[in-house]
Structures are given as structure tokens and as C-alpha cells.
Amino acid sequence: MVGDFGFPFSANVFYGDNGELYYALFLLLPWNPFSKGMRDLGRATPTPDSPGLAWSERDSYCRNPRRDGAPLFDPDRYINNNCVLSLGEVYGYLACLWLGYFVLAIYFDQVVADKNGVKRSPLFFLHPNYWRGGAPSLRFLPADGAEDGAPPAHVVGDEDVEAEWRKMQARLRQVRQAGALPEDLDGKFALQVRAPCFPFPDAAAPAAPPSPGGRGRG
Length: 218
Fold this sequence. Notes:
- This protein has 2 domains: 2-111, no CATH class; 127-189, no CATH class.
- The chain has helices at residues 2-5, 11-14, 19-27, 31-44, 65-68, 87-111, 128-132, 159-178.
- The protein is mostly helical.
- It has 8 helices and no strands.
């Protein structure tokens, strides 16, 4: 409709019933203003002898009586007296639409879950860490109700496990306070697993809890 009839980018439609609504809705689809611009270029150069459109005339050729007064006729230049969207405005709208849809694409790429189910919060752009980079803020939650700094009950008694637990505690505090990974870790690992649990059920007593030697945190 835009290419063949100019709908709704003509003065007759724009100033009619719901004309401004049609105008706004059609502008949201980039191919509509693009078709309007191509239509104007085609009408400005129907024959080899046509004056065409100069860059300086990208706005001035577009006129309509409601906005510009009486129709204007000039044999030496192309003038559209039933126009509400000039080529200059087409260029501007297309640039804005490109930017707007580009931002929307980035946003939905972040908030829509990927094939692994990973997604961000809908308001992720309000988090300072998103803009300044670095590790997200962390909050250490002691396991099994242990106080911060005190190893959990199942760690106490095994010197190796307890030493590793304290080492990881120190690393977590460093990340939490500095907002970045320690130098010996930064950029070396894509993923670190902390506090793994390995229960080994007893076939003879399936309801029994896992043995202390089968559960460790590092």
C-alpha cells in the first residue's frame, strides 16, 4: 500500500479520520518509510529528462496545503503537494528505528532464556556491575547454620578439608571486598565449583545419611 498508493503518508490520509494513528503505526515498521522514500525518488525521476531530487531538496519538495498553504508548481524541480513525510524525515526515522531495534535486540537477548536456561533479570541494566564490569557482588552464606568464619561441623576434625575450607573463605572475602577475582584466578577459569557434596548412600540402609567421609567442602 505504501509503494503503490502512499498510504498513510499522504496529506489526504494523514488529516483524515485516525490518520495520525495510522501514520505512527506504519512508521514503526522500517520497510514502510523506506518504501515511501523509494516511491518519492521514483516519482521524481520518471523519465531521463526529469529534474530528480537534489540532496538539498530532501525536505523542501514535500508540501501539503494544510501545512504549507497553496500548492506550489515549478517545472524545474520535483514538488509533491500531497506529502507529509519527506526523504529527510525518512532518513531520520530509519536511523532511529535501527538504533531502537538494536537496543531491543540486545535487551531481549539478555532477558530471554537461552538453550541452557540462562537469562538475566528484566532490570539488569539498573545494576551498577553491568556497566562498570567486574565480578558481581557476592554475599557469603555459611553452610549448616555455621557462623561466618567458623567451619561447619562436618569439616571440623579433618585438617586437610578444614584448611581448604579456610582458604576458600579467604578467597570469597577477597572477592566480596574488592569486587574482582584474585589475581591468581582472574581470567584462568571459566567456572569454579565451590562447596561440592558427594553423598554415598548405603545400599543396605538407603535411608541412612551419607557418611562424613563422603561429604566435603572445599
